[in-house]
Amino acid sequence: MIQVEDSNQLLLLVKRKELASQSVFKVVLKLQTWPKKDSTKESRLLQLPNEILEDILHRTAKIERDDGCQFLGWQYPEYRYSDLKSVALACRRLFILCAPYLWRDKEFILPREDDEKSDSVPVQIATDILSQPALFLPRQLGSYVRSLSRDLTNAANYDLANSSLMARLVCNLRALRIDFHSKFRLEHYGIKFFAQHCPHLSELYLEHCRDTYDDFNSLLEYPRPLVSLTLLSCTIKQTTLQKIIELSKHSLDSLLLQRVRLEPELIDYHTQSPPAVTTIPTSVYLHLFSFLHLTRLALSDSLSHSVLEQIVQGSPRLEKLAIIIHETSPILVTRCIVLLVQLDRLVILSLAFRRIHPLSVVYERIACFAPANVWTYFASNLPNLHLIHISASKLLLHADFFASILDGSRCRIPHIMLHHIAWVSGTSQQLTSLPDDEALLNEYRRNVASAQDNIEAWQQEPIWQDACGSFLTWEQASAKGFRCFNESDRVCFVQGFESWTKH
Fold first, then answer.
1. DSSP strand E in 357-491: where?
2. pTM value?
3. What percent of the chain is predicted at pLDDT more than 70?
4. ∠ Cα 460 466 469 (to 5°)
5. Quick one: which H or E segment has residue 319?
6. Cis peptide preceding 77, ω within 30 of 0
7. Which residue has the higher pLDDT, 49 or 281?
């Protein structure tokens, strides 16, 4: 138990991260009544400058996420509200210091149409809350808000008047998330209000937002270079997407596109149904990634070797990557894996081999057509990996793949999940360069000829003793609560991922 004697020691321990955040808040409250040498009860904590007090609050209230095991498009709230509230109620000065953090991250959920309203509990409208004057300071509460999350999925309410007023109230907004109802709208979504009235807007997370009425063009009309862009089940015009990415080419750090489709360029103001959409073509991806410098990227469209090559060349400092490969040539698949090895800062990799059916969520899982020694080379050359998830209908592996990631019974990679691994006889020859095409094809054919799809083949290997609990049949994985496997996954390998189990 660390003994804290005075406020100076508290600050030192906080900076060194030697004191847990929950303990700090208990100490902060206790500091209010630490006696001076003359035994009076005057607070010694409040003798510290505001800058030091604010630094203590910032360091101790901030939520520490295990960033090496998560891939989040929305990373808010940043601070623990309950802890800040306890400190804010201690005295007026601490309340003033805590106020910006108490209102920094706000979330508003649109009530369901069938929600029962209580006569005893008044329903507060979000704009009424944000327009309230701040206590002790001449400003509105909305001016404190830096991240705003709005859940509008409970009703197909256009909410445009409310959006217009809300955007004016959160004038210092940095990050905006809106989850819209999936029903097609006959007018715009109100994104332009936030682009117009929030000059510091740099992070955007949107779900079910259609660009039929040029919503996204407002980010160009009021130029807002983005740091982070997440679009889920959205549509956007091709020229608008390209211009937004080009506008943000020096600032964009995170890009997540899931089921994003392209709208027709011309607006049909008389349409009563969603216009026909198309998938993002390879040529557009090649153009976009030619000048981006990302550290986080996630795409739900399947990619070719040429697009992956452009991604690696343009963003060599990628730390988190989630992609789908549709190549079926052993030569091109091998080149894809070798490209990934060049990303030496990679912490999280989610890699799937699939054939995606255009304009639908249906896909067909395909095999990874790469020889086993390429995966051993991969495992030996990415020392910073914390999480790897590879999904394929078959993955050819030598036993020494696992020898390169296991340190005794401990796995060097804390979270690893591999679907349908097939045992391949022999050991991998150390790769120093990419073999010529003929040698690569011959190696792949030998691997396919010796591959075995049963767990008994792995049991004969020395690494079985250290990792027998991680090799699972589909039945064993299902019994543990994993729902991400299917019957075709005859042998899987899982370390970590406890949060994925459902009992």
1. 363-365, 387-391, 395-397, 406-407, 410-411, 415-418, 421-423, 471-472
2. 0.86
3. 83
4. 90
5. none
6. yes
7. 281
